[in-house]
Amino acid sequence: MRKKIIIACFATLAFTSCQDKFLSVTPETSLSSDTFFKTQADFQQAVNAAYAPLRTIFNDRAWKLGELHSDNSYYARNKLFGAVDATENIADFAIPTANGVTANDNVLQQWRQDYLIIARTNQILSLIDKVDFDPTIKSNLKGQALFLRAFAYFELARYFGSVPLHLTPVTVRQEAALPLSKVEDIYAQIEKDSKEASTSLLAKPKQEAGRVTSGTAKMLLANLYIVQKKWAEAGTLLSDIVKSGEYSLMPNYDDAFSGTSANKNNAESVFEVQYLEGSAGYNGNLIYQMIPAPITAAELFAITGTSNPQSISGENNNIPTPDIIAAYETGDKRKDVSIAYVTLSQSLRTDKKYPYIKKFARPHSQQGNTGQNFPVYRYAEVLLFLAESLNEQGKPAEAIPYLNMVRTRAGLAATTASAQADLREAIFKERRVELAFENKRWFDIIRTDRITEIIGAYGARVKANPTAYYFPDGSVPPPNAFTVLGKYYGYPAVESALTPNF
């Protein structure tokens, strides 16, 4: 069993056929690198395969580990359905962890999907320079592989801290169980890969829609520098993105997000994960994991507009908290784009009205089958990161115009903050509402060292008034909720059984 799991994660690739204009992946067979990597088309298919795990990550896991694990969203408890422990424990900051490991399946699947990206990109990067084909295409494909490996390691470092650093394909069982590398070493590799990717990748106007660009790689590297508090380095990269003229804010905040079939990879998109509605297997179903339940077919139809609405009787998560709702200033246009309300006739609460995440509830054809892309990086975040990096360098006057660009689009007046400390808080708050439900909040809290301040207070509010946080009348959070406020998730217990190193 050990050998099967390790080799599945690190030594094989499910290669693919591709459709024009979409990063499609259709598994056909498992082939060895010796027999497969012969042509440009082989590497193009392999790069497509390296993107594929992102669909699973952002549909099923990232919102749990990065947003539900914050004060922005919570779960709508349905006591008739029973507990959904793996997800509730994340929302409650009460993940069972012993000796640094956890059996939480969300944590396990995130780990595996990131390492699947790493395994696939390592195969590409170990062989691509040995095959002769068009150098411009080769550079672009290599840049995509470098970015995807860097992105996967960035996720792993932020979720777990020290992780095994695989940079070459694993061919035998013994190679799979590497020691944990220091966070600094993981960051150094992310920096190296991102820098090379930024010079290898095409600019957005020349790149196929949906693929990462030189601007995407610069944004990832800037994000790394922000986490490391290397403000000047981040500022230089972010300024480059702005000066490139390749990106702009969509005039209407609602249009920053794709529909199920239109408005994808728009002018504001720096990177978004691609989904395709239909029967090909590239669709998502994100909104169906987030809609409050139990919800009837008629109540759901008013939100999704599908031709075959069906009731959902379980327990759903990522419900906007009263805290995020209160965070919007009066007149902020983003609030009605991001959050709407539904009345659930079958709810066991006296107050049957629930908020839901409207920005990801775009009309589509069939129940449980959506094609809306997920935004990983938007130009609005470029501007907010640039404002933050300038302010932290002691240049608040230079930072303010970038913050105000985001506020103006939201229909708000210019910020009144001018001093560095006040502006720091203003940017922090602006990121919360501009990027709400885009899986940024938890990472913002931990990189600013505000876990106890923010999550501790949030937990106290939930415990003091559980009905305001969607618990059925008389129900309360578990006794251990909000008592463990660690920076990192525990390592997956299943993976720990396969290695002596954690």
For the structure shown, list the relevant keywords.
mainly alpha, Serine Threonine Protein Phosphatase 5, Tetratricopeptide repeat, single chain, disordered N terminus, 11 strands, 21 helices, two-stranded antiparallel ribbon, 3-stranded mixed β-sheet, 502 residues
- The first-to-last residue Cα distance is 19 Å
**Helical residue percent?**
40-55%
Number of strand elements: 11
Q: Note the overall shape.
A: globular
Number of helices: 21
In oligomeric terms, what are we looking at?
single chain
Beta-strand portion reads 5-15%
How many strands, what sense, and barrel or not for the largest sheet?
3 strands, mixed
Description:
Among the domains are: 1-201 and 449-502, Serine Threonine Protein Phosphatase 5, Tetratricopeptide repeat (Alpha Horseshoe), CATH 1.25.40; 286-372, no CATH class. The protein has helices at residues 2-10, 33-36, 40-51, 53-68, 85-91, 105-127, 135-160, 173-176, 183-200, 214-228, 231-244, 286-290, 297-304, 322-327, 334-338, 379-392, 396-409, 420-434, 441-447, 451-464, 493-496, and strands at 73-76, 97-98, 101-102, 163-164, 180-181, 269-273, 316-320, 339-343, 353-357, 374-378, 491-492. The two termini are 19 Å apart. The protein contains 21 helices and eleven strands. By secondary structure, the protein is mainly alpha-helical. Mean pLDDT is 93; it is low at 1-21 and 25-30.
